[in-house]
Amino acid sequence: MSQQPEYSDWQQIIELVKHSVEQGQHEMLLTMLMTPDEREALLSRVNIVRELLKGELSQRQISQLLGVGVATITRGSNELKARSDEEKAVLMTLLEANKKGG
Question: DSSP per residue over 38-50, as a string?
């Protein structure tokens, strides 16, 4: 009998994160699951998506602003292209609502 991992699907991870938020343990969970480099990469990805959605800068300018490669920006852009206008609007609302001043 072969063993299977407990978590084998992205939706299970989403549910895990949702449950951790409900329990007030999301910060601990995400910090424990992600290395410092992965957390930095996620921070970059959030900023990439936000800048792409704002549409004020070219991919090259975003690359220079965030100190990431143009290919990284392009991957984020391609992911956004696969989303509906409604999804993009919701995402922008989420990103705007949760940004810190500064």
Answer: HHHHHHHHHHHHH
